[in-house]
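HUMAN:
Could you generate one sequence with tokenized structure?
ASSISTANT:
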Amino acid sequence: MRVKTDATIVAVFGFERKTKMVRPLFLCGVSAGFPSPADDYIDRLLDLNELLIKNPPATYFVKVAGDSMTGAGINDGDTLIVDRSLEATNGKIVIAAVQGELTVKRLVKTNGACRLVAENADYAPLEITEESQCEIWGVVTSVIHQFEK
């Protein structure tokens, strides 16, 4: 196993809710097998802000660089939605400032110890100690992964 460290966050964006982002929502579901031609109608409209952002004043976005969280479905270039009002409990994916650099990792608490754990075996866990200068900036609530940009 190679031991790597990376800052994985390349940009931080604030959230300002100026308008609704309403789009059609098909409640019939999307078939991954055989399509159902009877389900081709719009049931209602969906506001993406309401779906993805539960606490607007505490929400911000970050852009990911690196592959340390691919096992959690977070890829290089993805945008994460982060809520700083949520409690960073065991098992949550968090944004943390470690020695002044932002990273995204899973918070693991065991036997009174805390670690920031990557979801890629190429990256060693980061032990959180008094000396590690670690501050949790928020809990990741969603990942935006674009297939085409």
Summary: The two ends are 33 Å apart (CA to CA). Residues 48-52 form the longest helix (5 residues). Helices lie at 48-52.
